[in-house]
Structures are given as structure tokens and as C-alpha cells.
Amino acid sequence: MPEAGHYGYKKTDGICDGVCGEPVSKAALTMSRLKCALRGFDLRALMALLIGVPILILMIYAHGQKVTYFLRPIWESPPKPFKTIPHYYHENVTMENLCKLHGWKVRDTPRRVFDAVLFSNELDILEIRWNELSPYVSEFVLLESNSTFTGMKKPLHFKENRHRFGFAESRLTYGMIGGRFVKGENPFVEESYQRVALDQLIKIAKIEDDDLLIMSDVDEIPSGHTIDLLRWCNDIPDILHLQLRNYLYSFEFFLDDKSWRASIHRYRSGKTRYAHFRQTDELLADSGWHCSFCFRYISDFAFKMQAYSHVDRIRFKYFLNPDRIQDVICRGADLFDMLPEEYTFQEIIAKLGPIPSTYSAVHLPSYLLKNVERFRYLLPGNCRRESG
């Protein structure tokens, strides 16, 4: 029994016994109290938590896009499928028979065709495009800005190299629009602003009702025979999307045939508006080529990565490293280290990894094959690029 008198009792445990009743330094007392506070914690679990959480955060930051893209089939349904129209063509079949094969009638005279594009810096691809379409186009319409979609200032590349396109000069409506350079703005706002300006330039080019208007980016190249068919046939749809063969970096890396944004319209005053999104359910099969990021110079790859509307895909500065870009091109890998943008797990898994090389150069734009020495970098087996 304790002795009579004032009695004070303080609860202690084994960890803290060493500091009770003895003079100790303030630091030792603090450490002892910390030990008391951590009593019952598993040290290994604590260390795993302290190391694991930062690693998990870093992995989410570095690869979060891959996780969300891979899980896309769970939270997003695929778009409504197109109604694909079979495309018949052979150089030895008459236009009357070609129209008949499509369920259309041949016209007495062909429609006028207007080819309208927004231009950034794709000089080689523009030259190939315009030469492919030149026999069938009545008016080329081109608009360029001194601003990229992301608000970067850029040279007027077409204006400085206009001499390369003398064959189209008599049929060219050219326009230049100044950028707005709004900091922090969504790039799609500037893109929309420029497309509206292009819509006005098309009117300046004196397009009329029932003329054909091609709406596509410079690197979305309709085949000449496709445009010839549509200008000669009656009863074609008012709006028709064009299915293009999808290539990346050059005609060596064939991705798929799912490029559909290019379209052709029978112009209607007050109704037709220049756009680059889905506008109908009808798609004409095998109608040309989409050669994305098909540049001669490494510097052009880096420029486009920073200039177009998906600049947010540059998650790390080293993505712009010239040696890395060259390595990615030759492997057929993705410049932004992204997973395929597909809507089913089967399609995502099927497209994982680099694009396999193709060694076929059959049915490519004729101007490209006639000028192989100038454009060899676009053909299979020529992935090395100049620095620029």
C-alpha cells in the first residue's frame, strides 16, 4: 500500500519508462514521446507507405493518360458506325459505267471543284496534294495565319514559298489572317476562329450552289480519281465523308483505314459551313490518304507537336528531344507515348506497340512516285530525317 499523504500517479509504458523520473535532455524527451506516439505501428508498413505513395503519385502523373485511354471502353461508347458506300474504280472503266456502278447517273458536264485548306507549314505535302488534285480542281483556296492554334507566332510559310506553286497561281484564292495571341486560351478556340475565316475566304473565291467543296486538312489527301468521280456524277449525297488510308510519319507506317474527317460537299449558300467534324453518316470507301506528321525535318515535327490543338499531349520536355523524335519515327512508335484512341479493348490491344512497316508503295499519289528523289523520305525504308 502507498504511504499516507499526497499521492500522484502517472501512467507509463515500457517504451517511456526510460525517461520517467530521470532528468533528460529536451531532444531525448521529444524522441521518446515520438516513440510513444508510434507505439503499435509496424515500421515496415510505415516505410512502405512513405515510399509507395510518392511512387504511386509519380506513376499516375507519368502514365495516367495510358490508364484512362486503356479504360476508355468502360466509360465511353463507340460512335455510331458510318454507312460505308462501296467505291468502284479502274482506269480502264468509263466514267458513265463508274457512275452507274455507284447507282448514280453521269452528267453532261462536270461540277466545279473548290479545295479549301488551312495551312501551317506542310509545304511538301501541300505540293503533293495540289498536284494530285490539280486536273480536277477549279479553284484552290488557302488561308494561313501568323499564329499557331496554340498562340505561337510563326512565319507565313506559304507566302514565302509561293513560287513553288506557280502551276496553281491562276486558280488560287489566298488569304492571311492575323492571330489573336490570347494567352492560356484553349487551342480549339483559335482553330475555330481560323476555320470561320476560311469559310469567308471560300465565298470570296466565288463558290456557287452545287459546286463541290473539299473540306480537309492539308495532310488528308483525296485521290484524284475520287474527286473526278464525284464531279461527273449526278445524285451524289449532299455531304459525303471520305475514308482515307491512315499513315504516320511516311507511307511506310500504315496504321488503319479509319481516317474519316475529310469530306466533300455540294455547296449550299447560307447552309454549308467549313468544319472538320462529323457532318453525315455516309462514308465513301478508300478515297485517298492521310499522312500525319509526314515531315522532312525533325524541327518540323517538334514545331507541330507544340503548334496544334493537342499540345497538352507533351507531358514532358524530353518528348521534343531531336534524338528521341528520330528514334520514334524509325520505330513507328507514338511521339506522345500514348495508347491507341479506340473504343474496344480488342482494338486497343491489337494496336499496342509500334506500327509495323509496310513495303508497298502501290496506289500512292502519282506526283510522289514521279518525284522520288525529292520525296524519298516519304517512301518505305527511308525513316532517317534531316535536322532542319
Automatic annotation (TrEMBL):
Pfam families referenced in this protein's UniProt entry, alphabetically: Glyco_transf_17
Natural source organism: Panicum miliaceum (Proso millet)
UniProt keyword Cytoplasm present: no
Iron found in the keyword field: no
Record's keyword terms, sorted: Membrane, Transmembrane, Transmembrane helix
Protein name as it appears in the record: Beta-1,4-mannosyl-glycoprotein 4-beta-N-acetylglucosaminyltransferase-like
One GO biological process term: N-acetylglucosamine metabolic process
Gene Ontology cellular component annotations, sorted alphabetically: membrane
InterPro entries per record: Glyco_trans_17
Molecular-function GO term, any one: beta-1,4-mannosylglycoprotein 4-beta-N-acetylglucosaminyltransferase activity
Transmembrane segments: 41-62
